[in-house]
């Protein structure tokens, strides 16, 4: 994989921030110019057919990445937006809670280490009867007994984080979602920190919704999120934030007639944004060409190189088979300060959350870089 780093535009130094923003593919500037800017420059409003092709290609690449149909994906500006849209659409879903009065609480369950924005979404939908319920932070996100105990009758939706941003912990989505199905609870999975670096087969999970973003491991830049909606119950969902591209036929132009799109695009809304998806398309194509399995194996190899020297210093042991692409290393305060200083001197890009440093390993990271970071740990 030593040649893979030539396919991306990398900052000078050791880039370990892919959990925040993935590096831009070398081809992005030229391809976005060809697919977005040139049609605009040459055709003006007649560029729309070419622009909409970008969205079709984007959904096709997502289908390849996740082993799913392109029709079941819909662009969303962010994971939060997708969750907001989905929860608002649930009033017509025939579930175990369908007959409850509108004033009764409808609980959304998630682990307390989920990305805070997801909790904010639920709290912001109190008027729809939703209430946030958390599994405590000190409980292992893969503790099936804890999920079983928290999946009470009032829980309508379970929000599962595939890879947790602050710890890197990889959730066993298949087992957790099986518990949810047994309780007749809807399941939503956040793949923002896993899409691209961890192989995902949607069919294996058998969940209701998947929400993701292209800004991290998919190297697609900010502004291009997506949602996958299980086609088994798509026709029971009625989004509230609708527009002409939510329509079965967006170009019918009859203000007195509206019919939801038959698939996930009913969540699309008004005049669509194109530029973020033109950018993201190049990133997803690049990752598909490399293969998420190859990326995953490369990331694991580099993680093992680092942990060979880092493990003895960690307050919390790390099993590379149970994390995503990021090593979240917890150290004593003196060692943490020394590590941070040494990494900065080495020109490394990383971030710190409390007593934790996050170090991500993508396809464009090299064995030489991993050995250099391991050497820094060796000197602590």
From TrEMBL:
Keywords: Aminotransferase, Hydrolase, Pyridine nucleotide biosynthesis, Pyridoxal phosphate, Transferase. Transmembrane segments: none annotated. Gene3D superfamilies: Aspartate Aminotransferase, domain 1, Type I PLP-dependent aspartate aminotransferase-like (Major domain). Pfam families: Aminotran_5. Residues 98-348 form the Aminotransferase class V domain. InterPro entries: Aminotrans_V_dom, Kynureninase, PyrdxlP-dep_Trfase, PyrdxlP-dep_Trfase_major, PyrdxlP-dep_Trfase_small. The keyword Metal-binding does not apply. SUPFAM superfamilies: PLP-dependent transferases. One of its GO terms (molecular function) is transaminase activity. This is Aminotransferase class V-fold PLP-dependent enzyme. The lineage of its organism: Bacteria, Pseudomonadati, Pseudomonadota, Gammaproteobacteria, Alteromonadales.
């Amino acid at each position: 994989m030593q040649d893979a780093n030539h396919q991306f535009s990398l900052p000078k130094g050791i880039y370990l921030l892919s959990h925040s923003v993935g590096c831009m593919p070398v081809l992005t500037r030229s391809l976005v110019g060809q697919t977005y800017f040139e049609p605009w420059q040459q055709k003006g409003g007649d560029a729309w057919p070419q622009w909409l092709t970008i969205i079709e290609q984007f959904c096709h690449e997502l289908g390849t990445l996740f082993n799913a149909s392109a029709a079941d994906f819909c662009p969303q500006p962010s994971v939060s937006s997708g969750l907001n849209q989905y929860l608002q659409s649930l009033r017509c879903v025939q579930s175990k809670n369908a007959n409850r009065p509108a004033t009764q609480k409808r609980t959304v369950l998630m682990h307390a280490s989920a990305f805070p924005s997801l909790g904010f979404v639920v709290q912001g939908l109190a008027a729809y009867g939703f209430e946030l319920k958390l599994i405590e932070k000190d409980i292992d996100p893969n503790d099936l007994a804890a999920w079983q105990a928290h999946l009470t009758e009032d829980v309508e939706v379970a929000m599962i984080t595939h890879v947790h941003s602050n710890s890197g912990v990889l959730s066993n989505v298949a087992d957790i979602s099986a518990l949810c199905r047994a309780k007749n609870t809807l399941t939503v999975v956040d793949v923002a920190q896993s899409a691209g670096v961890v192989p995902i087969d949607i069919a294996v999970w058998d969940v209701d919704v998947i929400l993701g973003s292209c800004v991290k491991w998919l190297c697609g830049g900010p502004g291009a999120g997506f949602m996958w909606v299980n086609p088994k119950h798509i026709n029971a969902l009625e989004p509230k934030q609708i527009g002409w591209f939510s329509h079965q036929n967006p170009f019918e132009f009859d203000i007195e007639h509206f019919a939801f799109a038959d698939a996930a695009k009913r969540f699309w809304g008004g005049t669509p944004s194109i530029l973020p998806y033109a950018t993201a398309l190049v990133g997803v194509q690049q990752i598909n060409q490399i293969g998420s399995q190859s990326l995953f194996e490369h990331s694991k190899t580099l993680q093992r190189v680092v942990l060979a020297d880092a493990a003895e210093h960690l307050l919390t042991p790390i099993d590379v088979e149970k994390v995503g692409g990021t090593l979240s290393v917890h150290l004593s305060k003196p060692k943490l300060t020394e590590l941070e200083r040494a990494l900065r001197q080495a020109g490394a890009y990383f971030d710190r959350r409390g007593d934790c440093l996050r170090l991500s390993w993508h396809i464009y990271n090299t064995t030489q870089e991993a050995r250099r970071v391991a050497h820094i740990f060796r000197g602590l």
